[in-house]
Amino acid sequence: ELTDRRRHADEIAILQIAGSAKLDNVQVEGGVKLRWKATDLKLCKNIEHLVYHQNVRRLDLKATLNDAYDALSLCPSLRTFIFTVYNSKAFALPSVEPHQANLSLPSLVILELNTFYGADVGPLLVSLKAENLKRFTLNGSLEDSRDDWNYLNDFLENSKPRLESLTVVGIEISPTSLVECLRMCPHIEYLEI
Questions:
Q1: pTM over the 0.90 mark
Q2: Which end of the chain is more exposed for a tag (fewer CB within 10 A), N or C?
């Protein structure tokens, strides 16, 4: 667990964390920003649970969709991913082969994405495939969106998960889209909209 309540942030590469090759549970809160690099793949392969929240008032700590994607792609054993995104601008998927258009996350069971300042996780969501997902939580900040937010439908259609719990708060979804989402999730036991 990396926590820091200081005024100045430290930027820590996963490579520099002692014993990082054996890490399986990482929780980051406060004043620490992790840098994810392709060279960290070997060291992050055992991480099963990743929680990443930062201080809302610190501009230099604001996690982006790119940070979330990097963490997901470098931690293939993730079962739990809880991440707070503050900035959705300039999200660009890395170039991938055409037959690998989505990042497959076969171990992922719990996905929670929290957004602030109007960050839109939709582009990240449709770049993922999580067929074993059981619990999905989206705490958004897009209540004034003018377009119908179809990213959830696209994600569910692509992943075909056996969701048992679905929470979508702070994002306007049309009744038609919601009904379609629920049709794709016949195993839902808990629903919060």
A1: no
A2: N
